[in-house]
Design brief:
This protein is an alpha/beta fold. 43% of the residues lie in helices and 16% in strands. Bound molecules: pyridoxal-5'-phosphate. Pyridoxal-5'-phosphate binds next to α3.
Length: 379
């Protein structure tokens, strides 16, 4: 039996404090007791999203809030723009297609940075574009997209929204919604928020709420306006994920105790330690130009199968890291450093990768990657 560690970009480990709260007997959702928790969580979510707007909560994985950000904002005949440089950009395109929205795509080579000029040109060529859908952190490739620049470009346009999937970004690096003028910010529970899967969130700017007023696409469960009305009374339209919301109150309290600035600094340091240790081991980064502080995608030496490294660290050490998806399968492995993954956990992960590399015939001096990580962490 091996002790198990999750170093995957979702789900991530759940802190004991939250797990214990969630182990308490279930309470009813139409009670003053639960409503008091919802009231606190509403305030805490505004703090996390750095917004004065209400943050809508759904009982679903992150994709639910993504779908809601299509079905509640657009209308039939609308055009949308998608930044497509990985699995999750593809997901935006698939959702838009499911709702028969005509979509213009900006393809970005996997692992490569986005040139904002291309978005500017597309908007100039198609001024009828009603929304731009993008990831803040494209988890499948480990890249970070320039949200601040996109918001500066799209924010002033009355008729276009910037919709940001921040599922592995919010609570990892700065994305101040109101200050940057992001129109829609989406996240989920099982990444930086340290909870089990099952909650998704979306906050809308006043401009986005105007779109929601006019939207005519079909929808039922995922209904922003209905949830907003209920949330304002500390209620949910349907049975909420009571247990997860109780856990949410606990993890957000933990985050508030540490403070956003400190969390961002710690995540940036862990990301840097991971990147530098991998480079020291002779590996390279899949997204070197603009790496995300949530997850590092590591390119393995040619001729080596990333799947073998992943299997080795799992079978020999009980450590779960993620593989690449689709075109990146076998070429990369991904280590997460967000949420309740802290510095000592990463050292364990890096040590296991060193052992795997050595066993698989890649020349490494054991301890070199860990040593490099320690140097970065010590600063
Ligand atoms: C995890 C993730 C999602 C949501 O996936 P679910 O499986 O629905 O929770 C969406 N976008 C990104 C960037 C993610 O990392």
């Amino acid at each position: 039996m091996a002790k198990q560690y999750l170093l995957t970009p979702g789900p991530t480990p759940v802190p004991e404090r939250a797990a214990l709260k969630m182990a308490e007997p279930i309470i009813h959702h139409r009670t003053p007791e639960f409503e008091a928790i919802v009231a606190k969580v509403r305030e805490q979510l505004r703090w996390l999203f750095q917004t004065k707007e209400e943050v809508i909560i759904f009982a679903s994985s992150g994709t639910g809030a993504m779908e809601a950000s299509v079905s509640n904002l657009l209308s039939s005949g609308d055009k949308a723009l998608v930044i497509k440089g990985g699995k999750f950009g593809e997901r935006w395109a698939e959702i838009l297609k499911a709702y028969k929205i005509e979509t213009i795509e900006i393809p970005v080579e996997w692992g490569k940075a986005l040139d904002v000029k291309k978005v500017e040109e597309a908007l100039a060529a198609h001024p009828e574009i009603r929304a731009v859908y993008v990831q803040a952190s494209e988890t499948s490739t480990g890249i970070k997209y320039p949200i601040r620049e996109l918001a500066a470009l799209i924010g002033p346009r009355e008729n276009t929204l910037l919709v940001v999937d921040a599922i592995t970004a919010l609570g990892v690096f700065p994305l101040p919604m109101d200050e940057w003028k992001i129109d829609v910010l989406v996240t989920g529970s099982q990444k930086a928020l340290m909870l089990p899967p099952g909650l998704s969130f979306a906050a809308l700017s006043q401009k986005a709420w105007k779109f929601a007023e006019k939207s005519n696409l079909p929808r039922y469960y995922f209904n922003f306006k209905k949830e907003l009305k209920n949330l304002q009374k500390n209620q949910n339209a349907f049975t909420p994920a009571v247990t997860l919301i109780i856990g949410l109150h606990e993890v957000l309290s933990m985050m508030q105790e540490e403070g956003l600035e400190k969390i961002f600094e710690r995540n940036a340091r862990m990301a840097r330690a991971t990147r530098e240790s991998m480079l020291t081991l002779g590996l390279s980064l899949f997204a070197p130009d603009s790496p995300s502080d949530a997850v590092t995608a590591v390119l393995v030496p040619s001729g080596m199968d990333a799947g073998k490294i992943i299997k080795h660290v799992w079978e020999k050490q009980g450590i779960k890291i993620a593989d690449g998806q689709d075109q990146a399968k076998g070429k990369i492995f991904r280590i997460a450093h967000m949420g309740y993954i802290h510095e000592p956990d990463l050292l364990i992960g890096i040590a296991a990768i060193e052992m795997a590399l050595k066993d698989l015939g890649h020349p490494v001096e054991l301890g070199k990657g860990v040593g490099k990580a320690l140097e970065v962490m010590k600063k």
